[in-house]
Write a structure and sequence with these properties.
Length: about 220
C-alpha cells in the first residue's frame, strides 16, 4: 500500500492527499513534521532529500515534491482522470495550477511565518506581497471563469491547486491587508463555496483542523511560537 508522509495542516501535503482520495486509491498516512537543520529526523532525509513534505512511499521507492507525486498518481491510476483528455486541455490545467502555485501561494507564503508566529512583517515585504497578489488576482480571471470547475467540465488538478492554495492567500490578505485579495475575481467566491461541499474536500478540512494542536506544538518546539 502507498504511504503518504507529511501532516494534514500542510497544503503541500494535502495536494496529493486530495488526489488520492478523489481517485479512491488506498493509502496510509504517516505523520511527519519537518523543520530546519538538526531538527530533521535523519531517517526522513532518506525519503525526502531536503526533509520536506509530502513524500510518497511506493513499492518501488520514494517520491518527493507534490508535482512529481501527482504525475506518478495520474500515470499509475489514470481513472478517474484528474486531467482532460486533450493535449491542450492538459496544458491549460497545468498552466492554471502552476499560475496559482507560483503567483499566489509562493507570494503569500512570504508572510506565513508572521501569520503563524503573530509578529508583524517587514513593511517592504508587505507591500511586495500585496502588489504581487493584486496583480495575480486581475490575471486569474483571464485563465478561468470558475463557472463550474477551475478549467473545463470536470474536476482536475487545477481544482486541487485552487482549493488548497487560494485559502492561504485569503488568510494572509484578511490578516495583513484587511481585505480578501480574491474578492473581485469573477465567479471565484461561488466556485470555492461549491468545492467546499465536495466530500473529500470536507475530509481534508476536518483532518487539517484535527492536526492543528500537534502542528502548533511542533512549531513551538522548533521555533518557539
Amino acid at each position: 500500500m502507498l504511504k503518504l508522509h507529511g501532516f494534514s495542516s500542510s497544503n503541500y501535503y494535502n495536494v496529493p492527499k486530495l488526489a488520492l482520495l478523489e481517485k479512491g486509491i488506498p493509502f496510509e498516512e504517516v505523520v511527519s513534521y519537518t523543520g530546519v537543520g538538526p531538527k530533521y529526523r535523519p531517517e526522513y532525509l532518506d525519503k525526502s532529500p531536503l526533509g520536506k513534505v509530502p513524500c510518497l512511499e511506493t513499492p518501488e521507492g520514494y517520491i518527493s515534491e507534490s508535482r512529481a507525486i501527482l504525475e506518478y498518481i495520474e500515470r499509475a491510476w489514470p481513472e478517474p482522470a484528474l486531467l482532460p483528455d486533450s493535449p491542450f486541455g492538459i496544458a491549460k490545467v497545468q498552466e492554471l495550477s502552476q499560475f496559482i502555485e507560483l503567483y499566489f501561494e509562493l507570494v503569500a507564503r512570504r508572510l506565513i511565518p508572521n501569520l503563524l508566529g503573530g509578529g508583524e512583517p517587514d513593511p517592504k515585504v508587505l507591500r511586495e506581497v500585496e502588489t504581487g497578489l493584486t496583480k495575480a488576482a486581475v490575471a486569474l480571471g483571464k485563465l478561468s471563469d470558475f463557472e463550474t470547475f477551475a478549467w473545463g467540465d470536470q474536476f482536475t488538478l487545477a481544482d486541487i491547486a485552487a482549493i488548497l492554495n487560494l485559502p492561504v492567500v485569503r488568510n494572509v490578505g484578511n490578516r495583513f491587508f484587511g481585505r480578501d485579495p480574491l474578492a473581485d475575481v469573477p465567479g471565484l467566491t461561488d466556485y470555492c463555496a461549491r468545492m467546499e461541499e465536495r466530500p473529500h474536500v470536507k475530509t481534508i478540512r476536518a483532518d487539517a483542523a484535527a492536526d492543528q494542536p500537534a502542528f502548533r506544538a511542533h512549531l513551538k518546539e522548533l521555533y518557539g511560537f
